[in-house]
Amino acid sequence: MTAPTLDVIAIGNAIVDVMAPADEATIERLGLAKGGMTLVDTARAQELYDAMGSAKEISGGSAANTLAGLAALGAKCAFIGQVADDQLGEVFAHDIRAGGIAFETPMRAGDPPTARCLIFVTPDGERTMNTFLGASQFLPPAALDDELIASAAVLYLEGYLWDPEEPRSAMRRAIGVARAAGRKVAFTASESFVIERHGDDFRALIDEGQIDILFVNEHELATLTGMSDFEAGVAAVSAKVPVLVATRSAKGAIAVAHGERAEVAAEPVARVVDTTGAGDLFAAGFLAGHVRGAPLGQCLKLGAICAAEIISHYGARPEADLQKLVAEKLG
What we know:
By secondary structure, this protein is an alpha/beta fold. It is built from 12 helices and 14 strands. The strands form 2 sheets. Strands 6-5-1-9-10-11-12-13-14 form a 9-stranded mixed sheet, sandwiched between helices.
């Protein structure tokens, strides 16, 4: 087996986030599920965009956000995701490449347009996401570069993208390529509603030993296992995956790897501005440590540091120098 030349390659939704502050009354008036993520169609996306105040456009997408954090920490990364040949597609491609991440997936001509996530951020920092998946739903298996996938130490897959048929087929093929090359497969469950729709698939992947590193939050863990008790859920899943990482918001996070358990407290934050991307950046920090062979507790600490940085400002891409921040925090 040849040594990997990339640290992490990710497959995920190629999305541009459109973010705007909103009060509680606006959330209620628009009938939004506060703090959650809802898939919307073209008409609803336009309705919500029209209802937004002054907005800021920032490239997003769960797995792409994780790669942005990894690259900021010095990891070598590549992204596979589908954009349309339009203005937001150009924005996404520019932003991810500017972060030092390889991105060569060909743009898709015609409709639907590039995906966008309309995010309403309330004064308590909660983000309410409304996602129009657009072109990202049409990532075909043919768009995969098998050689590139096989060159990465870790293949990181975004649960959100399991919903549409084409990218689901692409990710299944990518898992096969990575495992044939002796690489690790990491999977983020993304959201409880995704597990409700595709839990049988996810549980099968776990049971078959296809997942080496699983990222969940405590709510997703409960949905995946059907167990309301956190510790019971951890015990059930950690027996089946080599590495389980479970985040618990302000209560910190735990990881179990090959029987070893570690815990970390949430990093203190002066003010929570926007929780968008907290889980994505936690995964970035953890994986940055993991690919370098860091101890389990240190991997968690890196995740906590990155998550704290991201919730201190708007947007799901790092603004601070993460390498400098980590050096300060870890001494």
